[in-house]
Design the sequence.
């Protein structure tokens, strides 16, 4: 999911990358905070919430076919009202998260994971070993092996990442800076009315390839 409107404009500026136009953006100057360093890790991905984790295309599968599937999939799914979002620290980083995530959101994410997995190339043993960290539960390790990502299905949590790893003691200052920067854009309930297919360039930056309205 990629936001639109003011949240997209301001959030992309905070990260320093606009995935829609594929250009770097001037980041806000905040006294006492190094915004560029704070956002270095999530910058490449742009402002988004992951539904299906990034993957390499399986041999014999094409981007054109993936685009066709994305369009067909979106035509069978309805928009999801996520509702109010809130800034906070969880899992080591600052993000916008639903105050009360609806069941329909988890169902959409699960369907997305399953429906596109035939296009995912198997993860190489080295990458699998790197991502299979001790902090993962047995179920999460199994999901990483089977689906290429541990935080899916029961472990899924919708979030729009706005920082790299930060300590909890820095949360108040960062949340205040984000609240000031994003303004009224974070008070508007989010509706997922489209899914975005994204791709990574040779420099590691993610670009929006196409946005598919949920019209089911």
Sequence:
């Amino acid at each position: 999911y990629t936001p639109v409107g003011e949240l997209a404009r301001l959030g992309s500026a905070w990260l320093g990358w606009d995935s829609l136009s594929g250009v770097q953006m001037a980041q806000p100057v905040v006294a006492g905070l190094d915004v560029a360093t704070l956002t270095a890790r999530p910058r490449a991905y742009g402002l988004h919430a992951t539904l299906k984790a990034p993957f390499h295309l399986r041999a014999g599968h094409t981007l054109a076919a993936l685009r066709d599937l994305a369009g067909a999939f979106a035509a069978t799914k309805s928009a999801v009202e996520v509702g109010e979002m809130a800034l906070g620290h969880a899992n080591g980083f600052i993000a916008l998260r639903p105050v009360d995530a609806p069941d329909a959101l988890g169902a959409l994410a699960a369907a997305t994971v399953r429906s596109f997995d035939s296009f995912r190339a198997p993860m190489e043993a080295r990458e699998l070993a790197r991502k299979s960290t001790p902090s993962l539960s047995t179920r999460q390790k199994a999901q990483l092996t089977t689906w290429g990502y541990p935080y899916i299905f029961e472990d899924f949590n919708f979030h729009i990442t706005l920082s790299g790893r930060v300590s909890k003691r820095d949360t108040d200052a960062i949340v205040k800076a984000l609240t000031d920067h994003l303004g009224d854009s974070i008070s508007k309930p989010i509706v997922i009315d489209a899914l975005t297919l994204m791709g990574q360039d040779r420099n590691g930056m993610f670009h929006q390839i196409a946005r598919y309205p949920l019209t089911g």
